[in-house]
Design a protein that fits this description.
Elements: H1 3-32, H2 36-74, H3 77-113, H4 121-134, H5 137-153, H6 158-162, H7 164-179, H8 186-212, H9 225-255, H10 262-297, H11 301-328, H12 330-338, H13 345-360, H14 362-371, H15 373-376, H16 383-406, H17 408-432, H18 440-466, H19 468-471, H20 475-500, H21 505-513
Length: 515
């Protein structure tokens, strides 16, 4: 499958999930607003997700996928499947024990992840209760990540990309029950729904693996040489992925010390920023790693270089306009999406400020996804760790400084700055090793894409002012105005990239058809 086709498959399903996620977040804002229950639930939701991204999507994925792909190429499906089964057995045993220990230690852990809540006993106790209810989600999602890695190595991307839709559907159902008055404790209902959704995603991937003929049974946990190899590669990867996730946890810790609502404002701003990051960044990273691993296992460095160049080109083509739009029209986006019910105008303004700061780092977040597979595919999990540690240190220092002046916006801006530092260092190291060479096509397309994004930003600025009367109207008029604004921006960007040759429609069609 061509890289463009893989990214389109992953991006399409991820887009569907993100759109459902917006429906979910619109309901969350309306039902919970930005008060005590909302802050407690978002901490409870982020805590298992921190470990999910750390164990499942971070270190484990970067270690397991190259090794599984290598076995597929060199030894065939049978040995690869046995290797995956052994890894699954050890992972399941570890995650069950880890979950049990965390449940017991939750009151003490809450002092670490939300220390600012300790001054409000009711909020602190609620956060503990909700986090205990959400944490089983981690075990299901860790096993789901292994199944997704196997499917992605076979270039079967659809099921893994579609799985997050289950989470959004279950949470939307729970929120509908809350709005209908069928549930008295909204925070508890949502926390239980998170764990149910994790089980649902796991079942979906089990079915997909059975259909692909690669489903494994859980054997007795054994530390075979292959499993030990995974853990050796995971060790530095855990630190590297942990650093990235610690950056996110630092945001929550610092925001918990700011006025009530800060955790929620950062959450909703990040959710908007996650749409292009999830659709483009995650798709590029997930599609690129198994492809690079296969090329390098076959000794084809030229194909690996070409594939990474196209990944960076796609990342810029889809991310630069998204960043330009979020920087130009944050207030209309946040206002139309979230300003209703318990989420007022002041909440919308505070969220829009954080969105601008997050958006400034959006291209860097996606470039990190396109650059780190260059290390992981070569089974180098140490170098990204060193780079990530430096980036995390910079993030903490800058966030503490900026929050004194910009409050929660300073926290978001520090995250963006650390992302740019991370991306720059990854690129420099790969270049020095001769493992990142920008070809003529990328060197020609990049400045044209940037120019097209600037033209689009100018068009959006003018269109927002022309549509001001609609934005001042009722809900239907505001939705229409935002739709027109998005259409105008897409039209302007599409016309410029086509006219300048930054991207040709015919080339994109050919890439999507190519296998």
């Amino acid at each position: 499958m061509a890289l463009a086709r893989a990214i389109a498959t992953l991006g399409g399903w991820t887009m569907a999930s993100r759109l459902l996620g917006f429906v979910r977040d619109i309901l969350l804002a309306s039902v919970l607003g930005a008060g005590m229950v909302a802050d407690a639930f978002f901490v409870a939701f982020k805590f298992p997700n921190f470990f999910r991204r750390l164990f499942a999507e971070g270190a484990f994925n970067s270690a397991f996928v190259p090794l599984f792909s290598e076995r597929l190429v060199r030894e065939g499906a049978g040995p690869a499947r046995r290797f995956a089964a052994n890894v699954a057995g050890v992972m399941a045993a570890f995650m069950l024990c880890f979950t049990f220990v965390v449940q017991l230690a939750m009151p003490w852990l809450m002092y670490a992840i939300a220390p600012g809540f300790s001054d409000q006993p009711e909020k602190f106790d609620l956060a503990i209760e909700l986090t205990r209810l959400t944490f089983p989600y981690l075990t299901f999602m860790s096993l789901a990540a292994l199944l997704a890695g196997m499917l992605n190595s076979l270039q079967r991307f659809a099921a893994a990309a579609a799985a997050p839709i289950v989470l959004n559907i279950v949470l939307i159902a729970a929120l509908t029950l809350v709005r209908g008055g069928y549930v008295e404790l909204p925070g508890h209902a949502l926390a239980v729904a998170v764990s149910i959704a994790g089980a649902g995603q796991f079942v979906l991937l089990v079915v997909a693996c059975r259909r692909a003929g690669i489903m494994v049974r859980l054997p007795r946990p054994r530390l075979t040489p292959g499993v030990r190899r995974v853990f050796r590669l995971m060790a530095p990867g855990l630190i590297g992925a942990g650093v990235v996730q610690v950056n996110l946890v630092v945001d929550v810790i610092l925001a918990s010390m700011l006025p009530q609502g800060s955790v929620s404002w950062l959450y909703f701003a990040d959710r908007v920023n996650q749409l292009p990051l999830g659709v483009v960044g995650v798709a590029v990273g997930v599609a690129l790693l198994p492809m690079l691993s296969r090329h390098l296992s076959a000794g084809d460095e030229a194909a690996a270089t070409h594939t990474q160049n196209r990944a960076i080109e796609f990342a810029l083509l889809l991310t630069l306009p998204a960043a330009a739009a979020l920087l130009t029209i944050p207030a209309p986006i946040v206002g139309v999406l979230f300003q209703r019910g318990a989420f007022g105008a002041a909440d919308a303004a505070a969220t829009a400020g954080a969105l601008v700061a997050f958006a400034a780092g959006l291209p860097a977040y996606v470039l990190i996804k396109a650059l780190t597979p260059g290390f992981f595919a070569r089974q180098d999990t140490k170098t990204p760790v060193k780079i990530a540690v430096l980036s995390m240190a910079a993030n903490v220092v800058v966030a503490v400084i900026l929050m004194q002046v910009l409050a929660h916006v300073g926290i978001a801006l520090a995250t963006a700055c650390s992302a740019w530092l991370n991306a720059a260092m990854l690129a420099v190291v790969l270049r020095r090793r001769g493992q990142l060479q920008f070809d003529a096509k990328l060197r020609s397309a990049a400045p044209r894409i940037a120019g097209a994004a600037l033209v689009m930003a100018a068009a959006l600025w003018a269109a927002e002012r022309a549509l001001a009367p609609l934005f001042a109207g009722g809900a239907e008029q505001r939705i229409l105005a935002l739709a027109l604004l998005v259409a105008a921006g897409l039209a302007a960007y599409g016309a410029v990239v086509q006219a300048t040759g930054a991207a040709r429609l015919g080339d994109l069609r050919a890439s999507l058809r190519r296998r």
